[in-house]
């Protein structure tokens, strides 16, 4: 239960949402009493963001706006960031941690949308629909079955068996595909899926290879010239994960040489900043290639689900301090107790801070009714429920404790 009376007027909390975040998020904030909600349709550059972040308490972004340490240093009121998408690699998480800014995302809400599009793209590619569609538009009647296949009986190799990869696995099996997957972490197979002992083994045995891994040094150019050479002749590649995962130039070369039979690519190493900007890629104008503008999770259902999920987490953090699901500060949840006053304290993880907090509360003549602390290597986060309201002087004393990053009175 969220308290009806917080220690701050909700109408004075400034919320800024960028990149066409679903209207459902704005409605959710306003229904919770937060009326100062501004929206912008596009992403902002670093300099634009430094100016726009002034006075903002809650920021909502998608994948295009990059939140750097400079932006976080310039933010004078920022409490939390909502990444209304799956990933958070566009946010400097270490800097967010050290600034005491909670970052929330929605890792599950659009998994179905991406999984469905992967299967749809697989059908299009193995039936060579992109070529036949282009031919029909150009006035050519290409009615033949050469090189066109059903999904049933083919092998699909799933690289990355997480939230999306595992859903692709279930859908693929229902179409009669034989599912093989590879993940660096041991995963329990769903249905009749079987794990591959290596990436090389997976790509060499698969008619369809689909990628579902996060961005990072370990996945940069994971699919490269050597990997592509190992793929079966005529196989197709699908990438709906991150643009750095596939070496685009090598993929284009493999397609032009006729080794691969097709590809569906939704993410690119460099993408336009906003809708309508020019887009170029080495994969353009190659037969049997589907190119889409990073729309894997862009369905109305997914965007609404993400909006409700992230806005709900942000409201809960504002009003109870619950950081469950945060990517930047330790996940802490303390059940509410009637008749108490809640204080949040984020600090650097150095010895003695909790003792200083407790001593300060005791010296102020207050009793701690409930307390929960969790730490990471960098920071600690504690929620305290007190029997009496903490004065402004008391808040200042907590802020003066060595290592303190942020103190906030919730209710």
Number of helices: 13
- Give the helices and strands as they follow along the chain: EHEHEHEHEHHEHEEHEHEHEEHEHEEHE
Give the averaged pLDDT, no decimals. 95
Overall 3D form: elongated
CATH fold call of the largest domain:
Rossmann fold
Strand tally: 16
Our estimate of the beta-strand percent is 15-25%
Rg result: 25 Å
- Unreliable runs: none
Strand order of the largest sheet: 8-7-6-9-10-11-12
Give me the CATH architecture of the largest domain, please. 3-Layer(aba) Sandwich
Q: Level of helix content?
A: 25-40%
CATH class of the largest domain: Alpha Beta
By secondary-structure content and strand pairing, the structural class works out as alpha/beta
> Termini separation (Å)?
13 Å
Verbal overview:
The strands form three sheets. The chain has a seven-stranded parallel beta sheet with strand order 8-7-6-9-10-11-12, sandwiched between helices. It folds into three domains: 1-109 and 299-329, Rossmann fold; 111-291, Rossmann fold (3-Layer(aba) Sandwich); 332-411, ACT domain (Alpha-Beta Plaits, 2-Layer Sandwich), CATH 3.30.70. The chain is elongated. Helix 1 packs parallel to helix 11 (300-320) and helix 5 crosses helix 7. The model has no long low-confidence stretch (mean pLDDT 95). It is an alpha/beta fold and 411 residues long. The chain has 13 helices and 16 strands. 31% of the residues lie in helices and 18% in strands.
């Amino acid at each position: 239960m969220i308290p009806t009376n917080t220690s701050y007027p909700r109408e004075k909390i400034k919320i800024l949402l960028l990149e066409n975040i679903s209207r459902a998020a704005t409605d959710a904030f306003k229904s919770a009493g937060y009326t100062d909600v501004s929206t912008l349709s596009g992403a902002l550059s670093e300099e634009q963001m430094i100016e726009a972040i002034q006075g903002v308490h809650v920021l909502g972004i998608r994948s295009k706006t990059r939140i750097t340490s400079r932006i976080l240093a310039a933010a004078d009121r920022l409490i939390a960031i909502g990444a209304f998408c799956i990933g958070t690699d566009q946010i400097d998480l270490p800097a967010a941690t050290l600034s005491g800014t909670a970052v929330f995302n929605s890792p599950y809400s659009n998994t179905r949308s991406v999984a469905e599009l992967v299967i749809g793209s697989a059908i299009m590619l193995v039936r060579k629909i992109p070529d036949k569609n282009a031919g029909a538009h150009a006035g050519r009647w290409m009615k033949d079955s050469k090189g066109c296949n059903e999904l049933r009986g083919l092998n699909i190799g799933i690289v990355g068996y997480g939230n999306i990869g595992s859903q692709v696995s279930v859908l693929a099996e229902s179409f009669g595909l034989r599912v093989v997957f590879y993940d660096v972490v041991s995963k329990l197979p769903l249905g009749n899926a079987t794990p591959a002992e290596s990436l090389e083994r997976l790509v060499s045995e698969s008619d369809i290879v689909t990628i579902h891994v996060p961005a990072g040094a370990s996945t940069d150019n994971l699919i490269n010239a050597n990997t592509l050479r190992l793929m079966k002749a005529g196989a197709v590649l699908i990438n709906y994960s991150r643009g750095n995962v596939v070496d685009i130039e090598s993929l284009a070369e493999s397609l032009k040489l006729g080794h691969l039979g097709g590809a569906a690519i939704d993410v690119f190493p460099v993408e336009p900043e906003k809708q309508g900007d020019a887009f170029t890629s080495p994969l353009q104008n190659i037969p049997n290639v589907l190119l889409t503008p990073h729309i894997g999770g862009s369905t109305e259902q997914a965007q609404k689900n993400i909006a409700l999920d992230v806005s709900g987490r942000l409201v809960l953090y504002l009003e109870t301090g619950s950081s469950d699901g945060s990517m930047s500060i330790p996940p802490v949840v303390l059940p509410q107790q009637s008749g108490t006053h809640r204080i949040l304290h984020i600090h650097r993880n150095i010895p003695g801070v909790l003792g200083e907090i407790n001593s300060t509360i005791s010296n102020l003549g207050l009793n701690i009714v409930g307390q929960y602390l969790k730490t990471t290597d960098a920071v600690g986060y504690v929620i305290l429920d007190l029997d009496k309201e903490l004065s402004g002087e008391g808040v200042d004393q907590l802020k003066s404790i060595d290592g303190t990053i942020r103190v906030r009175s919730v209710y």
